[in-house]
Amino acid sequence: MPNQMPINHLNHSKKPHLILVPLMAQGHMIPMVDLACLLAGAGALVTFITTPVNAARIRPVIRRIESSGLPVQFVELCFPAVEAGLPAGCENIDLIPSPDLFKTFMESLSLLGPQLKLHLAAASSAPPPDCIIFDSLNSWASTVAKELGVPHLMFYGPSCFYILCSLLLKKNQVLKTIADDFELFPVPGLPEPVEVMKAQVSRWMDRPGWEKISEEFYAAEDSAQGIIMNSFEELESSALELYRKEKGKKIWPVGPLSLYNKDAESQATRGNASSVDTQLLVNWLDSKEPNSVMFVSFGSLARNPFSQLVEIGHGLKSALSSLPSLSFIWVVKEAEKGDGAKKWMSEFEAEIKGRGMVIQGWAPQELILTHAAVGGFMTHCGWNSTLEALATGVVMATWPRFGDQFLNEKLVVDVLNVGVAVGAKVPTLFVDEMSEEAQVKGEKVRKAVVEVMDGGKEGEARRRRAGELKEKARTATEEGGSSSENLKDIIRFAYSRK
């Protein structure tokens, strides 16, 4: 467990009671579990709202938190999936079986509102809530807070850079003037020049038919008394400064939240149970030279068609020939779908035995990234994964898919200069039917791997910058650091409302 950050002046017999309401998606739940533990360690009572299916997924984490003695309570609300028009048990975005049901799922989240309100009103044995912290996509929770007269804060999972860019694009009505989805144009008002394409930055909530959800999102953002972010001051100082000016309210970056998990057990169980024997994995990594392993993983939602799996495999195998010292770990969720993929993957594993490890299912990502043997990370640029790489000093090969990921790539490659773009240009929504044609050919994969792992003087400079950001991340979360102090300020905010 982490070093706790007590707030000496607080009367701990009257700890503030914070309610955390994460979005039902792995990438949103994982950092909010970390946030719950940090807030509890800093002097709060925390209630974490979830559902039966999602609680089952993080059961090892729940048990670990309960055994630690941290004052975190997990409350399971019943999500009426069938009533909402969803399959039974569809309680997480990655369980949505069809693109047509994504909007249904997002609209149905508000069905949890009356249950949360009843729970908070009826919980006579617990202290009343002093503050509700809700995921930015759970606008319904801000409605509950307002109805109960409880202060509420928004938790933003993405980078401040992405949030700021989205705000500036909307404020300046830029996308309405761009006809070509793939025309490069600059994001106005940024301190650093960044060019993007319309297709890469259009938010799903701003599409036709989503007006109600969009209005509720922006209303919740405006009504929140402050915003919590999984980032840190030293990483995004210019973006945070400009965003604070734009919003005119408290902005608290408290990350990297992944650094809460300091031991191998907590790293291995973060988010879900590992699909590989962790001791076997660590032994394999221990046998490799420092910075010699490329880790390849594309998050919990992105899916590759079979043709793309083949291209990735060819690129990785070709990179082994280019770099004799290279090894890799490749997380493949798609291999379980279809006999063709299974057969090809079996043959591929035999060919790369000893120099490559394939993990089919969920991998203990943070445990892998913290190992000294890992020197590169091919990632979809989800913010959790990006921030974990930054916090561990690992250089990235960036392959964004949708949402905030293309702007995260711009931050990593163009602003921070700690990554190399693989070359993906076209967004592929996680719920869309994937094209059978591979978007990125094997040669681009090989080239990106070689550039990250052996990029000459430029590669050395990237690795040096990544190491500097790693140290800044750790300093931010230590006692007296910027994230540590921001966390304490959130507790003070909630305490002052008692």
From TrEMBL:
Region (Disordered): 456-483
Sequence ranges of Basic and acidic residues compositional bias: 456-477
Keyword Transferase belongs to the record: yes
Signal peptide stretch: none
Keywords: Transferase
Domain Glycosyltransferase N-terminal: 18-257
Transmembrane segments annotated in the record for this chain: none
GO molecular function: UDP-glucosyltransferase activity
Keyword Transferase part of the UniProt annotation: yes
Family: Belongs to the UDP-glycosyltransferase family.
Annotated protein name in UniProt: UDP-glycosyltransferase 73C6
Species this protein is from: Platanthera zijinensis
High-level lineage: Eukaryota, Viridiplantae, Streptophyta, Embryophyta, Tracheophyta
Gene transcribed to yield this protein: UGT73C6
